[in-house]
């Protein structure tokens, strides 16, 4: 078997986990999660985490390996995935990397610039200073110091604007220059990469997301949030957890009713889908429109793309 690696991206709720699982049951494969929401233990219902029965049938990596609040960044993800891909290929299996975190998938294809450890000592103070800037001010500053990076970052993308400014202010070099000079290795150095981006009819996807929120609450999402709050993770849930956790904390505090929280969660989830789709439109993957009831056709197409009969 040639060294072939499969990436599956797409917005939340599109069915990436189910399709990758169905594929991995038909070919020798292991799955690596590129969904940053599923890294953390205890955040199960609200992240629609891959269930244990699926993980018992097909090896899944990078799920439930961090405690809430434990530091982890995209560079550590990058390193872990390259190691795992090498291990999986050595077992003569296909690595299937699956997730909706577009930045995590992009770094695997394009590489990533790593900030030296000695520079990180000043990062917290610098980040606090930058947080006092408006997003418009960040964009204007970045346009002055790194116009190349500025053309690739949306003016409203506060996180990426701040990141690019942090790199420049800590190193004295534009992020765009450092990326050009320091991007090896990449996933393609380990094997031939095939990248699919899944999409669904928008009305169908929105309906499924609404139903998923309702189901999550029925099976104990609010109780999950309460347990995490009691365990001392409230700050993490408000600052870093996926959509819904902060809203349900407000329910527990009496600031929102369950109905109000549900409305907000559904609204924010659809906004997330639109942002994810905008991101993936800039990526080099092959788009697959998955129509309801035709998931098996998508699995077959992926098998054929990997050279499996």
Structural notes for this entry:
With 309 residues, this protein is an alpha/beta fold. The protein has 3 domains: 4-112 and 184-201 and 284-305, P-loop containing nucleotide triphosphate hydrolases (Rossmann fold, 3-Layer(aba) Sandwich); 117-181, Histone, subunit A (Orthogonal Bundle), CATH 1.10.20.140; 203-276, Helix Hairpins (Orthogonal Bundle). Helix content is 54%, strand content 10%. The chain contains 16 helices and 6 strands. The chain has helices at residues 16-24, 52-57, 74-90, 102-110, 117-120, 123-131, 135-145, 147-151, 158-171, 175-181, 202-218, 221-230, 234-239, 245-252, 258-280, 295-305; strands at 4-9, 29-33, 60-61, 94-99, 192-199, 286-289. A 6-stranded parallel sheet has the order 3-2-4-1-5-6, sandwiched between helices. Helix 1 (16-24) crosses helix 16 and helix 14 (245-252) packs antiparallel against helix 15. The model has no long low-confidence stretch (mean pLDDT 92).
How would you summarize this macromolecular structure in one to three sentences?
This protein is an alpha/beta fold.
Structural class: alpha/beta
Mean pLDDT: 92
* Sheet with the most strands: spatial strand order: 3-2-4-1-5-6
What share of the residues does DSSP label as strand, in percent? Answer: 5-15%
Shape: globular
The rounded Rg comes to 20 Å
Number of domains: 3
Name the CATH superfamily classification of the largest domain.
Answer: P-loop containing nucleotide triphosphate hydrolases
